[in-house]
From TrEMBL:
Organism: Lindgomyces ingoldianus
Highest taxon of source: Eukaryota
UniProt protein name: Uncharacterized protein
Organism placement in taxonomy: Eukaryota, Fungi, Dikarya, Ascomycota, Pezizomycotina
Amino acid sequence: MPRPITLAQHQRHSVLVMSQALSARAQRSPFTLVLDDLNQQADQILTTMIARGLSRGINVVYVAFEHPSSHPAVRFIPAFGTHSHHTGDQILAEIERAIGIFKESLVIVDSFHDLFDIKGVQPVDFGNLINKYDSYTVGVYHQDIATPVHATSYAPSPLEVTKFMATAIFTCKSLAQVLAAKAAKERSLPEPTFGLLQGAEGIVQSITANDLRGVVIDAEFRRVSGRPEFETFWLRRTFTSDFEPPLAGLPFGPLKQEFVMCLEQLPLYCSDETMANVNAKADEIDVPFKLELTLRQKKVRDGVLLPHFDAQGGEGGEGGRILYEMGEEDDFDEEEDEI
């Protein structure tokens, strides 16, 4: 039997797996699906993967349905605005031209909803194109967009097919909302809801959405054997200073030091100061009544003589005797008393 690994070994392994996925290592996860919503969008993940892909000198292709521009070194395929008349077949043809002459490519689609549900591209056809050229694919699916009803109701939706095809699934969460959920759990309170889940009229996005400090990622990696690995990571914003000076012809140099980490390693998440704030908030529970007694109420409570005190004051063997004084409304039954 293999020796069980320690927590530190598990964290190092998880960070290594996540680092390879973010650096577009096709052998780790050739098809990564990113799920986001209005509470936390996937822009920070896409920015990180573009920078890491360019630092490795691979061909980066960006299929844009929502963003008007990208890094100058990226092969940009616009599909919005005046370019929105392009059909799904035309978009696939442009992707093939952009990756056809390169040995290794990173293809990023910022909205699978537009590509599959609006343009009508079948996820299987898109996957066959990417596999044909041995490329690494990253696509974003917005969870707060209603999935259209298809003519064949028994057929799976494109989102379900994409989840089945993906070798890794990243779910984005806001750090501020994750900390709020942890504080509620520590106080044994219901987990708070944000945005559309609040059910409040007119609220579609919380003020704690899209935390600029970084993004929390619930990651699921699927092995070849079918056994999944789950871990939650913290990915901060990417800066130019995170990379070495670029070599000739490259926009980014090698990565200096890995900055993605397991969420449990984030000081803000597990520090003593954070836990102290959580425990301090436990005394501020808002209830419609007062839990404390006034001095007068305490004196009245102390002056109440309970029946079991008299029973304990009797002689030995009478400690369990019940003391009861009959009132006018009591009906005395002599026969029952004799029994």
